[in-house]
Automatic annotation (TrEMBL):
It is a multi-pass membrane protein. It comes from Manacus vitellinus. Alpha-1,2-mannosyltransferase that catalyzes the transfer of the third mannose, via an alpha-1,2 bond, from a dolichol-phosphate-mannose (Dol-P-Man) to an alpha-D-Man-(1->6)-2-PEtn-alpha-D-Man-(1->4)-alpha-D-GlcN-(1->6)-(1-radyl,2-acyl-sn-glycero-3-phospho)-2-acyl-inositol intermediate to generate an alpha-D-Man-(1->2)-alpha-D-Man-(1->6)-2-PEtn-alpha-D-Man-(1->4)-alpha-D-GlcN-(1->6)-(1-radyl,2-acyl-sn-glycero-3-phospho)-2-acyl-inositol (also termed H6) and participates in the nineth step of the glycosylphosphatidylinositol-anchor biosynthesis. It is found in: Endoplasmic reticulum membrane. The chain crosses the membrane at residues 190-213, 225-244, 277-297, 309-325, 331-350, 357-375. InterPro entries: GPI_mannosylTrfase (IPR005599). It is an enzyme of class 2 (transferase). This is Mannosyltransferase.
């Protein structure tokens, strides 16, 4: 077992890590976890939220009015492409906070992330123990150091993403994997953890294919492995997942099958952008490894033959993902711990250069970690505090916030926690096979001014608040002026605006005299 001070260090570091990540990465970190959990627990507004309303509003009427807009599920949930197992973790946290009467919006935002950070710290220590067992304490320290100073791990490990959970479970499973020469191998434990990772994110099956296959080949009692380990573990995990989804979907669905059908067979992921086949090799992996790249290559050359299976898992995963046209950095995050093993192995064998290498790794990771964690794309989270303030208005029932940004740019009720009327531009992919399908966001951006005038032809329909990127302002300025909107806040977002995403976010409010 790893020493307790090591765990304390990891937990403290990851907690600090959590606080120093204030930016948004991808919509999924809210929309596939926190938003779903928020809707599971707070589907109906609490009496506390109701008491903030004018007395004339009876609670019953209030519930009836808001029953449909307090909580929002994206199209993936409507089509059963996602399972409730992962959001259930956060729903449990939310439920506990609700029962304790502590469901304050700041706690709803930070407690799930701190929980994720603590899990990440335990995984870091598991990685240390594994390497200490396979090699020695010196190599373990090097791998642990590489893992803790990786900028991409820092950027991702405290986020409520299924990719993060998949990576954490992969490290836990790895620590029980029966690699040649290991005495710690436990088929049942590692297979259960792999199965859980697959339930949470079906693509977890990819990195584990070569590892499970290799285990099967070297196992003497093959029939036992399948009958006493694989089948029971598989049945229990799939069974549990089925029951959880049955409870929350209200019908029997095999989510993992739908997920596979959509992403692999129909290849509808391309709707969200496609990249050239070599992207992971030329950009994906080099970027997430960053300054660790030369050490990774060096470690691969140095490491003994029995660790080749780890390298096989990395190459296999990157190759398989390369065949899918929709590519993202976070998809290959689960191979990062394997890479860190080789980086640490390399670092351990750099005799004279070790100190310089450590300083180089620290400095070269510190800047990207702090910049991406504190500055790049922070506006979409910062603007939520402006929306939170509207919860305390006396005329909450009159508030209507319209987020005119690329869809899912911001989180929603999980970061507001009061039943304001909110709307954003939607962009579900077409599942009917219609050739000429254009989603709402694209229709809006093709002619923003025309769209707004048509949508809000009547003054009574107008939103009280508009949230938009600065790049849109000029185009819709006639609408803003005519309908009496004034800018109330400017929020910094990024130094590298792209397309529809601007460098700043503006908050506009409709003047009071215009409302009445």
């Amino acid at each position: 077992a790893a020493p307790a001070p090591l765990l304390a260090l990891a937990v403290a570091l990851r907690a600090l890590n959590c606080v120093l990540v204030r930016t948004s990465f991808v919509p999924d970190e809210y929309w596939q976890s926190l938003e779903v959990a928020h809707r599971m627990v707070f589907k109906y507004p609490s009496r506390a939220a109701a008491s903030a309303l004018p007395a004339s509003f009876s609670f019953q009427l209030f519930v009836i009015l808001n029953i449909h807009n307090y909580g929002y599920l994206t199209w993936e949930w409507a089509n059963s492409l996602r399972g409730y197992t992962y959001p259930l973790i956060f729903a449990s946290i939310y439920k506990a906070l609700q029962l304790l009467g502590k469901d304050d919006v700041q706690l709803l935002i930070w407690v799930p992330r701190l929980a994720q950070a603590v899990l990440a710290a335990f995984a870091d220590v598991k990685l240390y123990s594994l390497v200490q067992h396979l090699e020695n304490a010196e190599t373990a320290k090097c791998v642990f150091f590489c893992q803790l100073c990786s900028w991409f791990a820092w950027y991702s490990c405290t986020r409520t993403l299924t990719n993060t959970m998949e990576t954490i479970l992969t490290i836990f499973a790895l620590s029980y994997y029966p690699i040649k020469g290991s005495k710690m191998g436990n088929s049942c434990k590692y297979l259960a953890l792999v199965a859980l990772a697959i339930v949470i994110r079906p693509t977890a099956v990819i990195p584990w294919m070569p590892l499970v296959f290799s285990h099967f080949l070297q196992e003497q009692r093959k029939a036992d492995l399948i009958l006493k380990n694989c089948i029971p573990v598989g049945l229990v995990t799939v069974g549990t997942s089925l029951i959880i989804d049955r409870v929350f979907f209200g019908e029997w669905v095999l989510v993992q099958l739908n997920f596979l059908k959509f992403n692999v067979l129909q290849n509808l992921g391309t709707f969200y952008g496609s990249h050239p086949w070599h992207w992971y090799f030329t950009q994906g992996l080099p970027v997430i490894l960053g300054a660790h790249l030369p050490f990774f290559i060096h470690g691969c050359v140095l490491a003994p033959k029995r660790y080749r299976i780890f390298l096989t898992a990395v190459i296999w995963t990157v190759v398989v993902y390369s065949t899918l046209s929709h590519k993202e950095f976070r998809f290959i995050y689960p191979v990062l711990p394997f890479c860190m093993f080789f980086c640490g192995y390399s670092l351990k064998h750099l005799k004279a250069w070790k100190k310089s290498a450590v300083s180089f790794l620290l400095l070269s990771n510190l800047l990207p970690a702090l910049y991406t964690g504190l500055i790049h794309q922070r506006g979409t989270l910062d603007v939520m505090s402006h929306i939170q303030q509207l919860c305390h208005n006396s005329d909450q029932s009159q508030t209507f916030v319209f987020i005119m940004m690329p869809c899912h740019s911001t989180p929603l009720y999980s970061h507001v926690h009061c039943p304001l009327k909110m709307r954003f531009l939607q962009c579900p992919p077409d599942l009917t096979g219609n050739e000429n399908y254009i989603d709402e966001a694209d229709v809006f951006y093709s002619n923003p001014l025309g769209w707004l005038n048509k949508e809000f032809y009547n003054d009574t329909l107008l939103p009280s608040h508009l949230i938009l990127f600065n790049v849109l302002e000029q185009e819709i300025s006639p609408f803003l002026a005519l309908r009496g909107y004034e800018k109330t806040a400017t929020v910094f977002h990024t130094h590298v605006p792209q397309g529809r995403v601007g460098s700043h976010i503006f908050v506009y409010r409709r003047k009071a005299e215009m409302n009445h």
